[in-house]
Amino acid sequence: MLSLNVNGRAVSVAADPDTPLLWVLREHLGLTGTKYGCGVAACGSCTVHVDGQAVRSCSLRAADAVGRRVTTIEGLPGGAENPVVRAWIGIEVPQCGYCQTGQIMTAAALLASTPRPSREQIVDAMDGNLCRCGTYNQVIAAVERASRGA
């Protein structure tokens, strides 16, 4: 049994310690907002926060999350009222939406550590998140909007 703190709740999961955190979240805990994209930490679809840092859950062993705070899109503070989520909706960023939870989680981690990032900082932080629909300009605009609290 693995004891995890996910979205502010203590949970116990019967999973192999080497199982990627992504699969524990999705298959054992039913938190399907975190998406599988590539399985090699290259696309960002599986991004969650671990102790406040954006982490690719497909490449983090579940055992390495024990004793740490894991936050998924379902546990993002404020839910639909979170400034990043509001900006995403306001600018209508998603097209297919598949990568968007990872994008939002990356943006939220950036804004938590750098509340007023420059455009260059936003581009650098979001660079590892791939979007098949090409919504990169909308993503940058949404992060800028969220940083202004709009």
Describe the structure.
This protein has a five-stranded mixed beta sheet with strand order 2-1-5-3-4, with helices on both faces. With 150 residues, the chain is of the alpha+beta class. The chain folds into two domains: 2-75, Ubiquitin-like (UB roll); 79-147, DNA polymerase, domain 1, CATH 1.10.150. The mean pLDDT is 96. The chain has five helices and five strands; from the N terminus they run ββαβββαααα. It is globular, with a radius of gyration of 15 Å. The longest helix has 14 residues, at 100-113. The chain has helices spanning 21-28, 83-91, 100-113, 119-126, 136-147, and strands at residues 2-6, 9-13, 47-50, 53-56, 69-71.
What is the name of the CATH superfamily of the largest domain? Answer: Beta-grasp domain
The helix-and-strand class reads alpha+beta
What Rg, in angstroms, do the CA atoms define?
A: 15 Å
Q: Specify the overall morphology.
A: globular
- Tell me which CATH architecture of the largest domain applies here: Roll
